[in-house]
Amino acid sequence: MLRYLTAGESHGPALTAVMEGIPAGLQISASYIDEQLARRQQGYGRGGRMKIEKDRVQILSGVRGGYTLGSPVTLQVQNKDWVNWEPYMGVELADYEPKRVSVPRPGHGDLAGVLKYGHDDIRNVLERASARETAARVAVCSLARRFLEHYGMEITGHVVQLGSIKANSKSQSINLIKESIKTSELLCADPEAEAAMKKEIDSARERGDSLGGIFEIIAANVPVGLGSHVQWDRKLDARLAFSLMSIQAIKGVEIGLGFTAAVLPGSQVHDEIFSSPGGYTRGSNNAGGIEAGISNGQKIVLRAAMKPIATLYRPLRSVNMSTGAGAEAAVERSDICAVPAAAVVGEAVVAYELAAAFLEKFGGDSIAEIDFRFNNYLEQFGVKQGN
Ligand SMILES: Cc1cc2nc3c(=O)[nH]c(=O)nc-3n(C[C@H](O)[C@H](O)[C@H](O)COP(=O)(O)O)c2cc1C
Ligand SMILES: C=C(O[C@@H]1CC(C(=O)O)=C[C@@H](OP(=O)(O)O)[C@H]1O)C(=O)O
């Protein structure tokens, strides 16, 4: 079983993650993980924090000589901002007052979290609700990403909508998307739309407002047979949706045609089946690569909708929880828009779910053992998988 936990406060000393279930013998390096961490930090529209942080991973357990041991892998990402927060965030002897937050921000975890946990300082909630946590997730899910790469799979995320601006990405192949987003500040494969998106972000910033958007994740070379129709919690589509929805501010997930499938007749939705020398081909991929909770061998295509950032520099109305009086919501230093960063987190959590499902089907304790099982499986389709 592949599982992970993350820990750490946004302005605490560090974020930590532990992953268990990664087999022995997977080649991995800190620089591979750092590359993903750097991608997560990019994006036009982010706030001042990203100028402070330069996320780097420390591997604390489970890896020796560049290869996983099969034991739990512990990763840590230091918060450079900690030096500015140490007096207020300590486990003991902290002086909370200067950083106390009393007015909840609509849309953040502030009010619900304080009521649920009985805190008298909103900071005790926001520190963990913060999407700073996603640095730990991207780090730890890089292990899953590396594992999938070993079996020839690749995962690409790109921004398809920002606020009201839509990218024209329908006809683009995965290679074109990968090429275009290399130089894009917004992880958008459509340069014309990207220019308009930047203007939209500038305008939101001037108005003291914020923006959301939609990103798409494509997973290529996923074999037939991950996930299962036989039980609700083994369905691959459900598990991918759960993980994507667990990312801060994600409020909707689509698979394949998604919501559009609901308004079209069946004849325009379902992907026709044809026989070919090596097996079967499909006339289209409206299902997004998953049928009955099982990967069907086509590309897996997912989209996630991110709501606008909750913290507004022109704050919404709220209530001071210390006095009960009406007040403007707290203003914490904040991003204006973080959809590109969320797309990188999306890639990471998709990698985790696919690796977990792959291990359930082909799992063993070492890469060599899994190679053997996977190759045997592919042989029935006349395919041999290299490394
Ligand atoms: C990469 C990323 C960066 C974010 N940055 C901010 C931010 O700077 N300010 C903010 O208020 N919310 C930000 N959010 C969103 C909040 O973390 C999120 O809205 C909050 O935790 C409440 O959770 P919910 O939106 O899922 O209900 C960010 C989310 C992501 C994925
Ligand atoms: C720190 C990150 O994102 C943070 C997510 C976040 C929130 O409320 O979710 C609020 C901001 O934190 P701060 O107030 O310290 O600037 C973002 O910068 C990160 O992505 O690494």
Automatic annotation (TrEMBL):
The keyword Lyase applies. GO terms for cellular component: cytosol. Pathway: Metabolic intermediate biosynthesis; chorismate biosynthesis; chorismate from D-erythrose 4-phosphate and phosphoenolpyruvate: step 7/7. Coiled coil: none annotated. PROSITE patterns: CHORISMATE_SYNTHASE_1. NADP(+) binds at R40, R46. SUPFAM superfamilies: Chorismate synthase, AroC. Its EC number is 4.2.3.5. Keywords: Amino-acid biosynthesis, Aromatic amino acid biosynthesis, FAD, Flavoprotein, FMN, Lyase, NADP. Homotetramer. This is Chorismate synthase. It comes from Desulfofarcimen acetoxidans (strain ATCC 49208 / DSM 771 / KCTC 5769 / VKM B-1644 / 5575). The gene is aroC.
